[in-house]
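Entry:
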Amino acid sequence: MTKIAGWYRIRVSDAGTTTETTYVWRADRRYRIGAAVAIVVLLALSVRVLMTYGYLAIIGVALVAALAGRVWWVLLRPKLTAGPGGVQVVHGLAPVHVPWPEIRRCEPTPEGLKIFTRNAGVVRARYPQQPARVAGPTEADATAAYLVQRAAWARRPTGPMPVYVPPTPAERS
């Protein structure tokens, strides 16, 4: 497994015959680590308060637990996975699987990627996000381009299978 920026590359092999790369996009690692540390600290402090004040602190502890759950739901849970079978989007109530041939186009937005499917469906992925007022290609632009190219290749394979090419650090700034 290789990690670069906000995405992971994982090699998948089917009975040793074909090898296709699976890409995973999530929140930036520093945000995930910071959120996990904050959740652990808040929950540890909540346990301490609960042990000190007993049932009188239940409402405060419940609010802290709800905040920790919300941070996990919004920041740590969402991800976008592109693999051999299609795209898996974890965002919202249930994960959504979109097979490659179903994808028609992708649009990077500040809220994440909008993946347009056949029959006018739209699937929203939280990551990667398009930063506001950034000139030049971003990770969201590269991801959208890869997903569209890979979907077109799945519908009509011509030439080699497309691979994800992240923007270089000089292009990102």
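The chain has a mean pLDDT of 80.
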